[in-house]
Every structure is written in C-alpha cells, then in structure tokens.
Structure prediction request, 329 residues.
Amino acid sequence: MMNIATIGTGSIVDAILSAINELEDVTCTAMYSRKRETAQELASKYGVSTIYTDLESLFSDANVDLIYIASPNSMHYEQAYQALQHGKHVVCEKPFTSTLQEAETLIALAKEKNLLLFEAISNIHLPNIKVIQEQLPKLGQIKLIQCNYSQYSRKYNDLLAGETPNVFNPHFSGGALMDINIYNLHLVMNLFGSPNTVSYTANKHANGIDTSGVVVLKYPEFIAECVGAKDTNSMNFVLIQGEKGYLQVVGGANGCQEIKLQIGNEPAEEYNAQTKSNWLYYEWEAFRDIHANGDHKRCYELLEHSHSVMSVLMSARKDAGIVFAADQR
Prediction:
C-alpha cells in the first residue's frame, strides 16, 4: 500500500485523486492547505481523513509514505526538499522545479536518502507513447516535428485587467513555457533525447512573463518546433514528418488521444492503446509500481529525463530573456 498526502487543492489535485481512486494499493490519507475550509470539500469528496494547515505536521505524519506537491511552481523546490528531509518519497507536479540547480539539488538529496522522487508529467507514461515509439521506424528519416499545445487561460483575462495571477507571475515561475509548452518538450525529448541547440521566441507581457511562444529544438537530422500558448486557442496536435510518411498525435502532446499514421499512398492507420478517460491514471500506476518494487533504477531514469528537460527549459528561458525570482537564489 502507498499512502499519499497532497499539497494543494486545485483542479489538478481533484483529477489526481480521481485517478488514484481507480488504482489498487494507493490511498490518499492526508491533505495540506493553508486554510482548512479550502480543502474540506475535496477531502470530503474523496474520503481523506486528515487535513493539515501546518506543513511540518504533514511531513511528520508517520502514516504518509509519499507527498504529492501541486503548489505554485516556485514552491516546488522548497516543499520537495523538506519532504525528502523528513524521509518522504515525493511526486512533484510539472514543472519539476524553477531552475536546473534546484532539480540537481533535489535529485542528489533523494539519492542520498534512498528515496523516490518523480516529476508528475503525465504524457511520457501514456500507452500511446509506446505506440508512437513502435511506429516511428516506418517513417524513415525524420525531418520535421511540429507541436502545438495552446489553451486560452481564464487567468489571462485577469492579467489583461491589470492583475498578476501566479501562472503569469515571474515571482512564481509561471508562463506558457513552464505551464503548457513543457508537454511538447517532454514528448519530443522522451522520443528523441536532448537537442543540440535550443531557441525560444516568445510573446511577453510587460512584467516579463511569456504568454505564448515557439521553442525550436535542433537535432543532427531534424528540427522540432514546439508552440505553446495561454493567450490563444488552437487545434492541438503533434506532427512527426519522415521521408516515408507522417505520424499525427491527435489532440496534442498532453493527452496523446489517438495516433494516425500515413505512409506514402497506403491507407491511413489509426491506433489507440489508452482505455482510461483520466490519463493521469497511467503515471500514478507507474509511480505505484516503482514504489511497490523499490525500482530505484527506473526512478533514476525518469529523473535523468526530467533533468534533461529542465536543462532545455533553462536554455529556452535564457534565450527569451525570461527571468524568475528563483534565478536570483
């Protein structure tokens, strides 16, 4: 049994709790919120017995094996660090940390204490990722990859009205790159590894945060273009183009809802290996199995991937001149 506790009460926590409700041997036993009433509805919905308003009390709870952190981006590092210091395994919501240095510190601490540490990035655990990997050789030499994940944020209206919500605040490590384009980067780098060069051209608000932008990853044999936007909507997709055909990921990189393969003039082929409507199920199934088997090797492989993505995020931010408060620490 893996007993988890959550930090945060947003919609992602609701979705996560819904996903683990479908899993055997995973239970949420505690929840943290600065105000008890903020967590009460969610705790009641999922039968969570304990609500903490003090983090130290949560970290000291002997019944909790793993802490899931879904606080604002800038808080991930400190809360994960404290949880690891208290001997808890950690799942940290994407983006893993604000900076590469923070990621490296957490990874080193987890290894030192023989604890499990994960970034909660759902798409790399989806069954359709394996389908893509299996079908890629049919495309021949890859030449171009196009990704677009755009989702107009209701918080963008607040930004236009003169407010500074966390997701558009450089002090909270926000922005379109960290919040939404990260799914494109994880997918491309999960399939093809780290690029040779990284550039990022962004639409930026007056406060310096990116509301949308285009990351270009250059590999030895092909170019990947990753578009992410919180200030506009789009048809979301991934398109991988090879000399023999192309592969389309319907719905975009975050859910990989369906795979369509077109090779030359042959009839198009369609694939979908995902049976769960809540695709967060698959990442938590992976976390549970790694925990149950004490599979540190697999955990470290995932951490190496998260480290590589964080390195690219840092390069992209530097290229676009996006500075977080965390960069000054």
